[in-house]
Design brief:
37% of the residues lie in helices and 15% in strands. The strands form two sheets. An eleven-stranded mixed sheet has the order 2-9-18-17-16-15-14-13-10-11-12, sandwiched between helices. A seven-stranded mixed sheet has the order 1-8-7-6-5-3-4, with helices on both faces. Helix 6 links the parallel strand 7 and strand 8.
Length: 502
């Protein structure tokens, strides 16, 4: 069966990095089980055993377990678990959306074994004693339509118990969540924890998934899916990428680490460009200049290491990397700066109003990194935000195809696409949903580009480092966390060898 691997802020690196669509996992399950001479029912028994192991480890004092079973193989896993827990002496109650006699295939076999062992099955609305733990085995990965009828009523009951303080363990994924996208299909279970099987599904880590799955664990069930095919995406995190930040040569000078020019900071919006510029400094750029509105005070008054540039200097080629957009605005001054700043061959990072101006006059380039949040992505695609969030993997793919370069679609489960590989970063926390966080990310990515990292590598590492800094800053609380609170952590994280020594 193999060890159950768990994800939390401290143990993200212990989870596999490959992400798989539900159909890929279904095909792999059939192929790998056949190759190993294992029946699919035996895999269902393994799933029940993994659930049993997880429950006994996480809730060793539990006595009353309520298992909510659907009509498919997800429900079959629940029936196997019910039988195994009853054999352990626990008091198990089963609620089901379909009578056992009407179940087919392996799910029907699992339900028959539960009944043969002395168990019983109640209807969705049957009164039951207050449970110590609720198991969600209602709907699996095959759900494609909005949930209604008996499954919806049973999900509502599960959520009621959860709101009353009873922990809920979801089998494979919370019922009502789309496995590939993280889209909520009408009704969805609010899980305290989710034990998913065989491979990680992207919908657990992006879209609405992180809001519903709770603490996430994986049970491979003895199947090595990584040996079977190509995943749809790779999960990234700071621990896995930190080795790219090698120590500098003892003879290094500031010219070795690139020159970053930031264009933005319209009247009344200097804070955005200063945050991005400070992030570029703290992430290791050799020299940083700011091109901002002439009415604003010099950036050196807030950060002595920052130099000021005039818009007339945008064509002089001083910089090796250019950030366009933080605090830029969309007035005539902003439009002139945007047009002048784009007339270069340097590496570009486009954010904020730079993206909004780009949406008005779309271009395709290979030398930029675009960093839209869902609202900016919707403007770039000419659609609604809800359409972006309904399938974030499709949205980031379309953005990259339409605009070129590397696209970073920010949000819970940030996605990075360079035209060849799709990456997902699940670091970060709700405390980062505040002003200025995106400006920091732009500055970090620009600094990594300036230090010689290729665009896809700089974008992925920048996103992971940004999320890790946010998680470290959040140890003092998510609510009230400021973008500037991340800057000391950014400096530590771009020097991983020093952090490890300490």
């Amino acid at each position: 069966m193999g060890e159950i691997k768990q994800v939390s802020r401290e143990t993200d690196a212990s989870l596999p990095h490959s992400l798989w669509r539900a159909e890929q996992i279904r095909q792999a399950e059939i192929a790998l089980a056949a190759a190993a001479g294992i029946s699919l029912y035996a895999l269902m028994e393994r799933a029940g055993g993994a659930l049993e192991q997880h429950i006994l480890q996480r809730w060793p004092g539990v006595r009353r377990v309520l298992i909510c079973c659907g009509a498919g193989n997800n429900g079959g896993d629940g029936y196997v678990l019910a039988r195994r827990l009853r054999e352990k002496g626990l008091m198990v109650t089963v609620l089901a959306t379909r009578e056992p006699a009407r179940l087919k295939g392996d799910a029907g076999r699992a339900a028959s074994s539960w009944l043969a062992a002395g168990g019983s099955v109640l209807g969705v609305d049957a009164p039951v004693p207050a449970p110590d733990l609720v198991i969600d085995a209602v709907l699996g990965t095959g759900v494609a339509l909005p949930v209604e009828g008996d499954p919806a009523r049973l999900i509502a009951r599960i959520n009621h118990w959860q709101q009353e303080g009873t922990p809920v363990l979801a089998v494979d994924l919370p019922s009502g969540l789309q496995a590939d996208t993280g889209l909520v299909l009408g009704e969805v279970v609010q899980a305290s924890e989710t034990l998913t099987f065989i491979g990680l599904k992207p919908g657990l880590l992006t879209g609405a998934g992180p809001n519903w799955c709770g603490r996430l664990s994986l049970a491979p069930l003895g199947l090595a899916i990584d040996r079977w095919g190509s995943p749809v995406a790779q999960r990234i995190d700071y621990p896995a990428l930190a080795s790219q930040l090698t120590p500098r040569r003892r003879t290094a000078h500031k010219g070795d680490h690139g020159r970053v020019l930031l264009v933005g900071g319209n009247a009344g919006m200097q804070g955005a460009i200063l945050l991005a510029a400070r992030a570029a400094l703290r992430a290791g750029a050799g020299l940083v200049r700011v091109c901002q509105h002439p009415s604003l005070p010099a950036p050196s008054l807030s950060q002595p290491e920052l130099m000021q540039a005039d818009p007339s200097e945008l064509g002089q080629g001083w910089d090796s990397v250019r950030v366009i957009g933080p605090g830029l605005g969309q007035d005539e001054w902003a439009r002139r700066c945007f047009a002048a700043a784009l007339c270069q061959n340097e590496s570009l990072v486009i954010d904020a109003d730079g993206l909004n101006l780009l949406a008005q006059h779309p271009l395709h380039r290979d030398n930029w990194v675009l960093t839209p949040h869902p609202g900016e992505a919707a403007r770039l695609l000419g659609c609604r935000v809800a359409e972006v969030e309904a399938d974030r993997l499709a949205a980031v793919t379309t953005l990259q195809q339409r605009y070129g370069g590397v696209v970073v679609l920010k949000g819970a489960g940030t996605l990075i696409h360079d035209g060849e590989q799709l990456r997902l970063c699940n670091e970060g926390n709700p405390g980062m949903a505040s002003g200025g966080m995106g400006d920091l990310l732009s500055g970090i990515i620009a600094a990594l580009l300036a230090q010689g990292l290729p665009a896809a590598q700089a974008a992925a590492l920048g996103v992971a480092l940004h999320g890790e800094a946010g998680d470290l800053a959040a140890t003092e609380g998510e609510r009230g966390m400021l973008a500037s609170d991340l800057l000391p952590w950014v400096r530590r994280l771009v020097n991983p060898q020093i952090s490890q020594e300490r």
